[in-house]
């Protein structure tokens, strides 16, 4: 995904889970084109989409409830990337 992704790219987002979320997020970020973000509250989820155009949400399953996790997924899938000044930074990330 590029920072100027089309609206249809919402379906190219993914969710990963592990106990702390750290291992899954670090492993995912080793791959080209991945911007995985570890989030444990609603504000972080929204900001990672708005400012970083994250395409993978890593959820720390040991530290959030199922209800919280489902809320994160909804926010992650419905929050658009703001672009603008953030696009310049995101475009510097290697996303081949």
Question: How would you explain this protein's 3D organization?
Answer:
This protein has helices at 22-28, 42-52, 66-78, 85-91, and strands at 14-18, 36-38, 56-60. By secondary structure, the protein is an alpha/beta fold. Helix 2 links the parallel strand 2 and strand 3 (56-60). The chain is globular. The termini are close together. 22% of the residues are buried.
What is this entry, summarized?
This protein has 96 residues and is α/β, with parallel strands linked by helices. It contains four helices and three strands.
The percent range for strand residues is 5-15%
Structural class: alpha/beta
**Helical run tally:** 4
| Alpha carbon gyration radius | 13 Å
> Helicity level, as a percent range?
25-40%
How many strands, what sense, and barrel or not for the largest sheet? 3 strands, parallel
Distance between the termini: 9 Å
User: Could you give the order of the helices and strands?
Assistant: EHEHEHH
Topology:
Elements: E1 14-18, H1 22-28, E2 36-38, H2 42-52, E3 56-60, H3 66-78, H4 85-91
Parallel strand pairs: 1-3, 2-3
Using brief descriptors, characterize the structure shown.
96 residues, 3-stranded parallel sheet, disordered N terminus, 4 helices, 3 strands, single chain, alpha/beta, globular
């Amino acid at each position: 995904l590029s920072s100027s992704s089309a609206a249809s790219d919402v379906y190219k987002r993914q969710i990963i889970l592990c106990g702390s979320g750290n291992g899954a997020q670090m492993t995912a970020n080793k791959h080209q084109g991945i911007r995985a973000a570890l989030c444990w509250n609603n504000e972080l989820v929204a900001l990672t989409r708005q400012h970083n155009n994250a395409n993978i949400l890593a959820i720390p399953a040991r530290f959030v409830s199922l209800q919280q996790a489902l809320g994160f997924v909804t926010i992650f899938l419905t929050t658009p990337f703001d672009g603008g000044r953030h696009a310049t930074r995101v475009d510097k990330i290697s996303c081949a």
